[in-house]
Amino acid sequence: MSPTSTPPVASESSSAQPAPTRAFEKLSPVTGESQGTFTITDEAGVDAAVRRARAAFPAWRDLGLQGRIEVLNRLQPVLLEHCESFARRISEDTGKPLQESIITELLAIWLYHDYNRKHAARVLGRRKVKTPIVFAGKQSYIEYFPRGVVGVISPWNYPLQLAVAPMLAALIGGNTVVLKPSEVTPLTGLLAEELFKRVGLPEGVVEVVHGDGSTGAALTRSDIDMVFFTGSVATGRKVMAAAAERPIPCELELGGKDAFIVCADANLERAARAAVWGGLVNCGQTCISVERIFVVDSVHDRFVQLVREVVESLRQGGPEEFADVGPMIFARQLSTVERHIADAKERGAEILTGGARLERPGHFFPPTLLSGVTPDMAIYREETFGPVLPVIRVTDENEAIRLANEHQYGLNGSVWTRDIQKGLRLASRLECGQASVNDVINTTGHPGLPFGGVKSSGIGRYHGEDGLRAFMHTKGIMVDRGLLSNEPTWFPYGEAKLSSVVSLAKGVIGGSLPRTIGAFIKLLRGSGSDAKRS
């Protein structure tokens, strides 16, 4: 997709001609100025891209794992040469600080691929599994093969990482991919397309269809073999419904309302700085942002004061201002933040700092700290996805765990305590896909750890071994040397065979190895005579 002028509206006299190409305008989150007008891929364009990806699939699959790794390894020199220029383009599109564009977008991509290329042979290779004694003489294996054409629909908050990471896992396994990047960040969508062109993938292995929600909907209806979606719960439900029509598998990475539990014995200075970074990195627009801070009563006031001091020390501005916190990326998300804060204030929460949109161009909302937040507030129940830190006072850690788990979301969480064993116990009680002790967000950066949520936070896992296998079919194989002309349990049946089968079943169920072996040998000896009877 490239910037283009909005096409003229067709006149009545040209009604027989094809409908004009639809387009949308992108505004800078920093300045509010236009960054171009972008065309929208229609359903026919989506279907054509899927056909090209399907045509490219057999050759890419048959290239073999090592061949595919060699091609994808070209990512390294591309990232080395263009790291800073790519980061500037991402920050131009999103407004996020350059440091975040480098670490959370570009470095993350390489970490995921580096893990994949080192472990894919072990994770995706054929592996032998133990065969039960009732199948003595046979060997059993599990192997994996690619699903085919994978549709990836990616979000706007980390527009390069959350597009490319699942694509790399799908590609290394032998799939081809059709990507639909977010229309909120079309400049990075173009960058994702350019990235794979620079890597030099064969034609059709990666197709990119740019556009709005209609383009994504068309992709879910197209002839793909799997859909991987990252985004809101509401849209995730629509994606799942569309996948069910085929049916094809879908993986959904959805919202979160992550719990941050501060115990009485926590290192409060570390916890306060972690809460601020975990809640405000990427201006709070992270699915695993800190969105509910539970603080034990005995340390509540001291902790809140420390957090306030850190928040008020932050600088906010655009990428070229070397600020700590940038603008919000999506203008419509500002209304959600304002609604949540207004509702919380009306219901008794106290705004300790921030709370109102900045009077400057762009989508700037200041880091905001709220105390006195309760479960009846929208900011507690719904995903805010903005630079807001809501603090909830609790009597003890057990109340914090109970409240953390009594929620529709279950993506991530963290526990803060000097007692590591207690921290592990509490982390294990959290109903979420990932958890940390005395750390925040970094679980998703670890390429060997599975990432995904429970409850309304999604279905499936990617990253790590689970992520590599997510894009593969699983096949079970059993091998017999073929020396016998007839198996003991095959036709014909008979009274003698039945007696041996009963003995075999009782031996296995009762855990008696001698009886099992004896019955199996008897079956084996009798199978020849039974076969002759037939």
Summarize this structure as a short list of keywords or feature phrases:
534 residues; alpha/beta; Aldehyde Dehydrogenase, Chain A, domain 1; Aldehyde Dehydrogenase, Chain A, domain 2; 3 domains; seven-stranded mixed β-sheet; six-stranded mixed β-sheet; 44% helix; disordered N terminus; disordered C terminus
Please tell me about this protein's structure:
The protein has 534 residues and is α/β, with parallel strands linked by helices. The chain folds into three domains: 12-254 and 466-474, Aldehyde Dehydrogenase, Chain A, domain 1 (3-Layer(aba) Sandwich); 258-445, 3-Layer(aba) Sandwich (Aldehyde Dehydrogenase, Chain A, domain 2); 490-533. The protein has 17 helices and 20 strands. It has helices at residues 43-62, 65-72, 75-94, 98-124, 161-172, 186-199, 213-221, 233-245, 268-280, 297-312, 331-346, 378-381, 397-405, 420-429, 464-469, 495-510, 513-533; strands spanning 23-27, 34-39, 127-129, 138-146, 149-153, 176-180, 206-208, 226-230, 250-253, 258-262, 290-296, 350-353, 368-371, 388-394, 409-410, 413-416, 436-437, 454-455, 458-459, 472-480. A seven-stranded mixed beta sheet has the order 12-13-14-11-10-16-17, sandwiched between helices. Helix 9 links the parallel strand 10 (258-262) and strand 11 (290-296). Helix 4 (98-124) runs parallel beside helix 5 (161-172) and helix 16 runs antiparallel to helix 17 (513-533). It is globular. 46% of the residues are buried. Mean pLDDT is 94; it is low at 1-16 and 529-534.
